[in-house]
Amino acid sequence: MADTPHDPQMPESSTPTPDAAARPAPAAPGSRRAAREAAARAAAAGAASHPVDPAAAHPATAASTPAAPAPDAGAASRPAAATRPAPQNPHRADPPTRAFDFSAEAPAPRSYAAQDAPAMARESYHAALATAERPVEDDAFAQLLSGEDHAVDDVQWITPQPPRKRRRWIGWTITLAVIVALVLGGVWVWNTYTPQLKNLFGTAAPADYPAGKAHGEAIVTVNSGDIPSTISSTLYKAGVTKSSNVFYQMLLDTGQNPTFYPGVYKLQKEMTAKAALSAMADSKNRLDHSVVLPEGLTQSQILQRVSTGLNIKLADLQAAVKNPKDYGVDAPSLEGWLFPALYTFNPGTSAHDVIKTMVDRMKQELSDAGVAAPDQQKILTIASIVQREARQAQDFPKVARVIDNRLAQGMKLQMDSTAQYGYGSLHNGTASSSSAALNDPNPWNTYVHTGLPKGPISSPGAAAIAAALNPAAGNWLYFVTVNMNTGQTVFSSNYADHQKAISQMQAWCKANPNSGC
Q1: Angle, nearest 10°, between helix axes 351-368 and 376-389?
Q2: pLDDT tens digits for range 26-72
Q3: Beta 289-292 vs 342-345: how paired, if at all?
Q4: Which H helix or E strand runs over 292?
């Protein structure tokens, strides 16, 4: 049995009276405890004046519910609790006290249904101990230490919140996304609507120079592969146009798609976009010259075109091609070594430099195709025949195969292009060769001589060179073009079939006179 605490001022032999031991210390005025005690005293007084049999009032629960403790006999004689003073803060109300008493007739709260009676029986004892051991200085703190139950309606449920770090990270992410969206939107609006806004408020500068203001001289270079937008920027950098895109925008607005040739143009400063376009279209404003050399031309034809296109004396060009060794070519002539392409040269370029540029280009093509130096002259010779004989690029490998097959069997090539080259007629607008050309003993005439001609008969392009290196598979020995308009060609492996193809060609030529037969 636990020791009962005693008052140090009381003699040890003295025993406290039951009332003194059971009665708790007076409650603080205005506290919840004081309110409950006052309610209990009022209930006890009412019960004394109007006794009620619990079994009669609640017959169903009389047997199972323990009897309530007897009311304190001295409670009626105790003075009533002092009235609780009004709160100092009018905006804050005390929590409400329970609306029921603790008499035997009052129903207990649901949460205390099973424990209320024993708790009330022990309340006096524990309250006395708590009062004797420590003074009550704070009403709320005293209630906590005395074990008194708190009102259910004082509880506040708190909604669980996500961790603060996670909320902070989400907030930063949303803020950053909003900032990025605003920046991107602002850039788009600026790029899209700035010209319109400037025009609307009258702050935009004129996009083009006014007509009639052009002056001075501006040199503009157009390189191969330049597109209109690039040329527009070039004109602006040279001081010709007012902005980098006004020339290109003018082309878009007017629906024009002109061809710009590489070269150096002499224009003026501060020109309108339309004036700049007109000046570039005028050949008089070009300070350099370009020349286009198609595939299949002979050296003589090439020199004539270069002389006309670049304004170089023909005699200077003819002198420049006399010695192939000057360009590292081990061949009797530069026939076949001048690569066909579009060439652009600056003003004052010499005839030697022009020829060297063309020869170097052919060397590069042969090197890229994997042709060894000792084989270059032979490959160019075969490719030059293919270039002149075939009408369609798809037939290039087949013509190369016919050449290889006839050479392998020791047959004469009998190619009209070789006879005409050596004779100097070069078809003269017809596919058929004259009897004089076919019988001329020049070293290029394959109707007279077996094997390849002395050298190339034209300047072949890249496709003909590739065909000479990789002939198509087949046993053809003959071919003839049967339609001069479409270039349709029939290949045969025997002479009888070849004669049938010749008859087909003759029938077409008869039906189509003046068609180059």
Answers
A1: 90
A2: 555 556 666 677 777 776 666 555 555 544 444 444 444 444 445 44
A3: antiparallel
A4: strand 289-292
| Same-domain status, 342 and 440 | no
Say yes or no: 331 and 361 in one domain. yes
332 phi, psi to nearest 5 deg? -65, -30
Bridge-based pairing of strands 478-483 and 488-492 is: antiparallel
CA 454, chain centre distance (Å):
59
| pLDDT on residue 124 | 46
Shared domain check, 491 and 411: yes
C-alpha radius of gyration, the chain, whole number: 59
Yes or no: say if 334 and 355 are a contact pair by the CB < 8 Å rule.
yes
pTM, two decimals, is 0.52
User: CA-CA distance, 109 to 117, in Å (whole number)?
Assistant: 12
Per the structure, the complete domain to which residue 273 belongs is given by 215-287
Cβ neighbours around 22 below 10 Å, total: 14
Q: Which two tokens stand for residue 143?
A: 């209630």
Indicate which CATH number applies to the domain containing 231. Answer: 3.30.1490.480
On whether residue 91 sits in a domain, the answer given is no
DSSP secondary structure letter of residue 4: P
The strand pairing partners of 219, in sequence order, are 266
Could you give the C-alpha distances from 404 to 125, 270, 381, 409, 472, in angstroms and in order? 129, 63, 12, 9, 10
Domains contained in the chain, number: 3
Q: Mind listing the pLDDT tens digit for each residue in 72-130? A: 444 444 544 445 555 454 444 444 444 444 444 444 444 444 444 444 444 444 444 44
Among 334, 369, 404, residue at a domain's last position? 369
Q: Are 479 and 397 in contact (CB under 8 A)?
A: no
